[in-house]
Amino acid sequence: MTTTAKVPVPIDKSAEPVAVPRRAALKAPIMLGVVTLLVALLVGLGARAGDTTFQLATDTDFFDLPEITLPSTATVWTLVVLLAACTAASALLASRGRRTPLWLVGLFALLAMTAFLTWAAADESLTVIGLLGGSITLAVPLVFGALGGVLGERAGVVNIAIDGQLLFGAFAAAMVGTLVGSPWGGLVAAMLAGALVALVLGFFAITYFVDQVIVGVVLNVLVIGLTSFLFGQVLTENPDTLNAPEHFSRLPIPVLGQIPVIGPVLFRQTILVYLMYVAVAVVAWALYRTKWGLRVRAVGEHPKAADTVGIKVNRTRYTTLLIAGLVAGAGGATYTLVSVPQFGEEMTDGAGYIALAAVIFGRWDPIRATLAALLFGFASNLQLALSVIGSPVPSQFMLMLPYVVTIIAVAGLVGASRAPAADGVPYRKE
Amino acid sequence: MSTNDETQPAPAGAPAAGAVKDPKEPPQQPGRFDGVLREIVAGNAMVAVLSVFLAVVVGSLMILLTDENVRDTAGYIGARPTDFFSAVWTSISDAYSALFRGAVYNTNLEGFQGRIRPLTETLKFAGPLILAGLGVGLAFRAGMFNIGGRGQMLLAGAAAGWVGVSVDLPTVLHLPLAVLAGALAGALWAGIAGFLKAQSGAHEVIVTIMLNYVGYYLVFYALSKQGLLQAPGSLNPKSQPMPESVVLPKLLGDRFNLHAGFLIALVAVAVVWWLLNKSALGFRFRAVGENPDAARAAGINVGRTYLVVMLIAGGLVGLAGVNQILGTTTSGVTVDLDAGIGFDAITVALLGRSRPLGILAAGLLFGGLKAGGFSMAAAEGIPVEIVLVIQSLIVLFIAAPPLVRAIFRLPKEATA
User: A184 and A80, same structural domain?
Assistant: First the structure.
């Protein structure tokens, strides 16, 4: 894992295979080993008898999948053995100087998660559908925010203001949604609010060459101040006329929604989730498969070269940033049009920073960043689910989990990745 | 617009982070620090003053737009414009005089002691802001962006608080021990980010953000667990109040809240100034911050520099946490003991351009805004968040001198 804009060089060097091949390859097996040990310790010290039941079905599926009941202790130990096998495979690859492939890491994560769930839900039953479906709901603002971040950074503008865009989007959605009386009006307002924050970011960062990290952080503070001020001055005075937006309701898709497991998880959601699917696909396609995307990436990697061939660098950055703002703002609408019935002060609670982490975690790639955001959503929902069935771990440690996992992943698994070369660098025409 | 500022690369001495950003940016001209001096002399102080002025103007507009009296009178502005203007005047002058009374000198009270009390409150608020601002600014100078102030303050406050309630010693030993424990906890927490960056290149922005959350829940856990930090027999996530022997002494007697934490902040300013400008270590920090590649080529161990600077930065932020728990909120450790200072510190460091004296000035200004903001909220019912708006606008404007110059039609900066 390298870095965003700030200090790309030193780490690139140390992480390049040429410089220290053995060490880079060893990071993965070490991390996997640590996690395997942790799981083994957990089970070894806190052995829990009983059976774990996984529920996979809902009432309206085409056909019902049976419940899966597993003896907790035996299952967990089997999984620990499999985890150890994955670690060994990774170590073997490392000893030959090869990197651990991503699918192995994915398999490992799946096994580790199953082991943990089996252990935590011993003598209980876990609704897998609720766990996964809820994760997607929670991940929506993160995914939109991460997409906005990816777009901006691919064009060479570091966007730390994602949190501000989400928060301002949430605020605009609540207020305009109530005034217009339709969640669609709220959604449009949220997108425009996100774009407005992006415009200010661009104004200072592109036109006035102010350090992009500074502008981003300051804009977040500004939006918190602005929305909290208006909330205290205006919204709390007139809660019914200004802060009671109508909600998007759940909109099951007829046939797809009835496929067991996949249906209820992916296709019985609100329209915002479907928009999210579309946004991910469109952003990935536009960035890699269109002339526009090529220009955006050129401007982010080598603005001078792009300028030489006639691409308007700063105009491209502005438009990309505005589109990114529209996307991130839509994520903000989730807060007030889906999750909670009204706007509250600082209600994003730093989600924009998590989205930023997803951008870097996902190596500035829309699909990977989306997956990272989904992972964060899953981790937050896992904690909710376990608090319902009564987790053996203190809830604070469950709440901590996504953040610890991120640190481990960023330090150990992401490996050598690289920010767009001109990320964070204002372009001055000579 | 780019032509506006051709002669002045790098956003007007934006913290070193700006300068480190990109190896491809034209290398800093020799005599950068001469340049800084010249900047101040040649009118950047003017830009700073005008930035504050602009921010206050925008803040005033917000107050006006949301003031009911002003809105009502605006309804019949054609008929009786004087009503409108007097409402505007009342609204603004009331707000800012409340701010002034809360931050500097309260003319409504009798006796000099009562009147000067707000100024001591400002200093009290400024202490932790300066300390945390130094922590963020120092890291900036070495090219590290420390967003982890919140976590570092919480851990530090919890550690100092734990020493406070669990150890029984005379003040002479107890207080220094608690302060040290806090600073160490902050240093270690920030050190994780420095260590990971040095070892595996993990981006410090992500790691410090994540450590904020981890630290929060860790302290939350300790506060809800009997035998760790939770007050015995209590169900609330809160510790016992700090015993007398660890409370920072009041500087001006019991009538004032100003405590010795402010002195710690002043000493820290001096130490950081010495460290950055006079010591070999500080030179290494700056070298790495300016250009890690060149620093490495010159034989500086860049990874170790990252670790060391984060340890020191975390220690400074930790002292801000100590300042809170042993000075300002001695009623016990809670998860809110950071009071937003960890994030405010970023704006303080940015406004102070990561230079110790600048941070001192910025901390005093923001301390005043904070003290005044509370009084403005109490007296005029204006949400205290207006202060956040003004603060962030000040930083934005100061970071873009050409914009301020354009707005006030000032001449371009004298060409270097």
Answer: no
Do A183 and A323 lie in a common domain? Answer: yes
Q: Do A220 and A333 share a structural domain?
A: yes
CB within 8 Å of chain B, chain A residues 97-136: none
DSSP 8-class letter at B4: G
Is residue A419 included in any domain, yes or no? no
Give CA–CA dist B149/B147, Å, rounded: 6
* A26 chain-B contacts, CB cut-off 8 A: none
Global pTM reads 0.83
Q: What's the CA gap between B68 and B77, in Å, rounded?
A: 14
**A424 in a domain, yes or no?**
no
**Using one digit for the tens of pLDDT, what is the confidence trace for A144-184?**
999 999 999 999 898 889 999 999 999 999 999 999 988 99
Nearest CA in chain B to A210: B11
Q: Which residues pair with A51 in a beta bridge?
A: A71
Tell me which chain A residue has its CA closest to the CA of residue B14. A211
Q: Note whether A143 and A44 are same-domain residues.
A: no
How is residue B200 written in tokens?
């595996």
Same-domain pairing of A37 and A172: no
Range of the domain at A115: 8-128
Digit-coded pLDDT (tens) for B170-186: 888 889 999 999 999 99
Chain A CB contacts of B62 below 8 Å: 226, 229
In angstroms, the CA B181 to CA B160 distance is 5
Same domain, A143 and A124: no
User: How far is residue A131's CA from residue A137's CA, in Å, rounded to a whole number?
Assistant: 10
Per CB-CB distance under 8 Å, the chain A contacts of B66 are 229-230, 233-234
Predicted ipTM > 0.85:
no
Residues A94 and A181 in one domain: no
Size of interface A-B (CB pairs under 8 A): 203
Count of domains forming chain A: 2
Judge: A14–B201 Cβ closer than 8 Å, yes or no.
Answer: yes
Q: Which residue, A419, A302, A417, is CA-closest to A16?
A: A417
Residue A146 to residue B137: CA distance in whole angstroms? 28
Chain B residues whose CB is inside 8 A of the A424 CB are: 21-22
Domain shared by A56 and A159, yes or no? no
Domain boundary among A317, A352, A370: A370
Are B66 and A404 in contact (CB < 8 Å)?
no
Nearest to B145 among A6, A230, A410 (CB): A6
